[in-house]
Amino acid sequence: MTAEAPTAPALSHGRLIPVTVHFDDLDALGLLHNARYPVMVERAWTELWQEHGVRFEGDWATAGDACNAVRELRVSYEAPVTRTGTYAVHLWLERLGTTGLTYGFRFCSPDGAVTYARGTRVLVRLDPATLRPAPWSETLRSAGRALLRPAD
User: Fold this and answer.
1) DSSP run (H or E) holding 102
2) Are the C-beta atoms of residues 52 and 139 closer than 8 Å to each other?
3) Tens digits of per-residue pLDDT, 78-118?
């Protein structure tokens, strides 16, 4: 009789995006540096949004939904990442408003079973000329609706 490996929990919402932790992401103790978690999350979101045509190509006037600013970032660290290699970021939207959104994230094992850190980030879409809040495009809103976490 052989034991089967436990299966990873199915995601009820959001997407799991692979990320890589490199040696230079570790601190002097050999742990993933606390400031690198938000960088890994940002890279995962960038990859996800690029799939939907949202990207910054050097011109804020034409950046569209990529012209946004962080209003708030919260991260809680649950378990240390102690080695390099492949991990994942589980991404979803908590709230999708007219000019702002709140996304949730988990930095986790590649299969999503182990959580190392979790948090939320609030973004505000900006008008490039005035830097005042501006509405998200229907393209982003449509893609975002698919990422919304179901109400509990």
Assistant:
1) strand 100-108
2) yes
3) 999 999 999 999 999 999 999 999 999 999 999 999 999 99
Indicate the pTM of the whole model. Answer: 0.89
CB contact at 8 A, 116 and 77: yes
Q: How far apart are CA 152 and CA 143, in angstroms?
A: 21
Read off the tokens for 89.
Answer: 């970021």
Structure tokens at 126: 């900006």
| Distance, CA of 70 to CA of 121 (rounded, Å) | 7
Centroid of chain to Cα 65: 16
Residue 35's CB is within 10 A of a number of other CB atoms, namely 10
- The answer to whether the CB of 105 falls within 8 A of the CB of 121 is yes
- Here the tokens at position 127 are 């008008």
